[in-house]
Automatic annotation (TrEMBL):
This is MGMT family protein. It comes from Candidatus Blautia faecavium. GO terms for biological process: DNA repair. NCBIfam families: ogt. Residues 2-84 form the Methylated-DNA-[protein]-cysteine S-methyltransferase DNA binding domain. Keywords: DNA damage.
Length: 102
């Protein structure tokens, strides 16, 4: 299984109403220093693969900047529909992060 496939499998298992960071996903995929590649993998995934890409945020709970701000807004909307709350600075509240040891 290549790195992207590992990323997709991990992200598919992030439960509804929860988030993980790019770094958490990279660590679980066996490459803790490849958080940016996690972002790229999610950027190029196909809609028909049904990857819940919107559940992955930065380690401090921010929605990562993208070339199109519309994508950032749609990610926030998708997260809010799952009941995920944001703080005053626009970051996902910590209680929505999956706990993990790593």
């Amino acid at each position: 299984m290549n790195f992207f496939d590992k990323v997709y499998e991990i992200v598919r298992n992030v439960p509804y109403g929860s988030v993980m960071s790019y770094g958490q996903v990279a660590h679980l995929a066996g490459n803790p220093r490849m958080a940016r590649q996690v972002g790229w993998a999610l950027h190029v995934c196909r809609p028909e693969d049904h990857i819940p890409w919107h559940r992955i945020v930065t380690k401090d709970g921010c929605i990562a900047e993208r070339s199109a701000s519309l994508e950032e807004e749609s990610q926030r909307i998708l997260l809010e529909r799952e009941g995920i709350a944001f703080d005053e600075q626009g970051r996902v509240k910590k209680e929505f992060f999956l706990t993990w040891s790593g």
